[in-house]
Design brief:
Radius of gyration: 19 Å
Strand order of the largest sheet: 1-2-10-7-8-9
Distance between the termini: 42 Å
CATH architecture of the largest domain: 3-Layer(aba) Sandwich
Strand content: 15-25%
Largest sheet: 6 strands, mixed
Order of helices and strands: EHEHEHEHEHEHEHEHEHHEH
CATH class of the largest domain: Alpha Beta
Bound molecules: pyridoxal-5'-phosphate
Number of helices: 11
Structural class: alpha/beta
Number of strands: 10
Number of domains: 2
Low-confidence stretches: none
Mean pLDDT: 96
Length: 322
């Protein structure tokens, strides 16, 4: 299919759904990954950023020239910086001080004003990663997009990611398995699948240390622990985490995610990031419960190039105890 675009902004969406041949043979069922690293900034968050800004614009909440602010593990920050260039906004982003260098180095040339949140602060601190953007927005009159609580995030996936998957598979698949960060992807696609009365089970993947898994399983809020994987999990219950459309949840560790990320690169030859390793680790854990011959659809949110100085660096892995 030819993809001809009037602007690079239109190159967002319509990403390929790719069969993972090696894993499919090893596991005994078909695994298809929607490769979001083909998007202009290299991640799924391009969809979210474009949708959220355009919707806020349409509703009269923002206009060209305004300042937007957001907290992001890095990918949303890059996507917002990219979309802001095209739609004429100024951008401030709050990032965790553990953000990978690759993401950080790309944020500056895209014109974003970067503010670091100290990850050692308790979540309830007004200067913590989760609270600082809101505080600065209130104080300075910036528009806070709030991808963690603003359901426009889920809507972006309901309106673009989900129908694309539906079309690419003719609705014929048994599982949709995706990582849960803000919850936008799994929530938006999950809602679409439930409304379609699709046969597919919706499975979310959480990272050890995050609170989602225990909340989903036992309605218990555990004390969060530190983890290194970027993109998945949270230390709070957030508004975009829509548990009502999720049939099951699998928890994986940093170690499992990084190890499967390496296998993904080396054996499958797919250059996807750490959270893609996490979903493959989750599918591996479900191997015995997924019937032979089933069809599994998953999402690879970003690219391995984002992690050259972290999970793809042996020294970094050693230094962090992996
Ligand atoms: C690398 C990566 N993977 C997965 C996710 C999770 O996607 P969502 O926020 O839609 O739950 C994110 C979100 O930031 C991400 O950056």
């Amino acid at each position: 299919m030819e993809k001809k675009c009037d602007s690079i902004l239109d190159a967002i969406e319509n990403t390929p759904l790719v069969r993972l041949n090696k894993f499919s043979e090893d596991f005994g069922f078909d695994i298809f990954a929607k490769c979001e690293f083909f998007s202009p900034t290299g991640s799924i968050k391009d969809r979210t950023a474009k949708y959220m800004i355009k919707k806020a614009e349409k509703e009269g909440k923002i206009k060209k020239g305004d300042t937007l602010i957001e907290n992001s593990s890095g990918n949303m920050a890059l996507s917002l910086a990219f979309v802001s260039i095209h739609l004429g906004y100024k951008l401030k982003v709050v990032v965790r001080d553990t953000i990978s260098n690759e993401k950080l180095k790309m944020l500056y040339p895209l014109g974003a004003d970067v503010i670091f949140a100290d990850t050692s602060l308790p979540p309830e601190s007004e200067d913590s990663y989760n609270n600082l953007a809101k505080k600065l927005a209130k104080k300075n009159g910036y528009y806070y997009l709030d991808q963690h609580n603003n359901r426009d995030n889920n809507e972006a996936h309901y309106n673009s990611t989900a129908p694309e998957i539906w079309e690419q598979t003719n609705g014929d698949f048994d599982y949709f398995i995706a990582g849960m960060g803000t919850g936008g992807t799994v929530g938006g696609v999950g809602k679409f699948l439930k409304e379609k009365r699709a046969k597919a089970k919706v499975i979310a993947v959480d990272i050890e240390g995050s609170i989602f898994y225990d909340y989903f399983k036992n309605k218990k809020l555990i004390k969060p622990k530190h983890y290194f994987l970027e993109g998945l999990g949270d230390e709070f219950l957030i508004g975009c985490a829509d548990f009502s459309v999720i049939d099951g949840m699998v928890q994986v560790s940093d170690k499992e995610s990084f190890s499967f990320n390496k296998t993904l690169l080396r054996e499958e030859g797919v250059l996807a990031g750490g959270s893609s390793g996490a979903v493959i680790a989750a599918i591996y854990k479900m191997k015995n419960e997924i019937k032979k011959g089933s069809k599994v659809v998953t999402i690879f949110p970003d690219s391995a190039f984002r992690y050259l100085s972290t999970i793809l660096d042996e020294n970094w892995l050693k230094a962090k105890g992996f």
